[in-house]
């Protein structure tokens, strides 16, 4: 079957294979950047400037520069600086993880700051340690509060995976643009847009479900 001279029986399987890279980047970035983001949030709240100031600078750098440039840096920078280089996929995951951890760190920091100080004081009176207070009282509320912002970031992550093409990762958008150039057609780009929309629809519904699960925990 062809549309505008584009053989869909060849294009669709290629795009499905390329979508695997999108999913891999997405999942690995979540697994690595969310825990790192919590550590960044805690470091930002540290009363020790030797911890909080470098963390703030790190966030400024990685939130203030394009992810595309960061991908290029982690692909080629280590070779010129240290004499070794990462493979393309590893460089991609490192860049995405460090970039998104900076954003998640700010989201989580805001979530922690939104918890009234009175809850900390009440927990202290009840005999909770600082760790128990954070894990049993603060953390569940923080998770509930940051779900919408986190979901929004993850929908952005799905779209940002297209930037991996700058270091020649054969992901969905790269396959679509190559096919568009080959067949002189916009059909591959339109199909890629549908793929991204479907993936983001799944993410949105997943976070709606998670949000309902946390409805029992009201501030």
UniProtKB/TrEMBL annotation:
Q: Name one GO cellular component term.
A: ATP-binding cassette (ABC) transporter complex
List the molecular function annotations (GO) for this entry.
Answer: transmembrane transporter activity
**InterPro entries (alphabetical):** AA_ABC_transptr_permease_3TM (IPR010065), ArtM/GltK/GlnP/TcyL/YhdX-like (IPR043429), MetI-like (IPR000515), MetI-like_sf (IPR035906)
Q: Which domain of life is it from?
A: Bacteria
Which residue range or ranges hold the ABC transmembrane type-1 domain?
15-207
- State where the protein is found: Cell membrane
Instruction: Name the Gene3D superfamilies on file.
Output: MetI-like
Q: Which residues cross the membrane?
A: 20-43, 64-82, 88-108, 183-207
**Alphabetical keyword list:** Amino-acid transport, Cell membrane, Membrane, Transmembrane, Transmembrane helix, Transport
Similarity comment text for this entry: Belongs to the binding-protein-dependent transport system permease family.
According to UniProt, the name of this protein is Amino acid ABC transporter permease
């Amino acid at each position: 079957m062809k549309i505008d001279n584009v053989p869909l029986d060849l294009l669709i399987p290629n795009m499905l294979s390329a979508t695997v890279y999108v999913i891999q980047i997405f999942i690995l970035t979540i697994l690595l950047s969310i825990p790192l983001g919590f550590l960044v949030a805690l470091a930002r709240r540290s009363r020790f400037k030797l911890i909080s100031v470098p963390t703030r600078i790190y966030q400024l750098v990685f939130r203030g520069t394009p992810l595309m440039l960061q991908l290029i840096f982690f692909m080629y920078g280590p070779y010129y600086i240290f004499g070794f280089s990462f493979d393309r996929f590893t460089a991609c995951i490192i860049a995405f993880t460090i970039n998104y951890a900076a954003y998640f760190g700010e989201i989580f920091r805001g979530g922690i700051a939104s918890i009234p100080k009175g809850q900390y004081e009440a927990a202290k009176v009840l005999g909770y340690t600082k760790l128990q207070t954070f894990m049993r009282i603060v953390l569940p509320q923080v998770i509930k509060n940051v779900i919408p912002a986190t979901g929004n970031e993850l929908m952005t992550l799905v779209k940002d995976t297209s930037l991996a093409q700058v270091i020649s990762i054969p992901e969905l958008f790269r396959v679509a643009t190559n096919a568009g150039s080959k067949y002189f057609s916009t059909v591959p780009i339109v199909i890629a847009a549908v793929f991204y929309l479907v993936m983001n629809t799944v993410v949105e519904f997943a976070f709606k479900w998670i949000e309902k699960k946390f409805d029992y925990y009201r501030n």
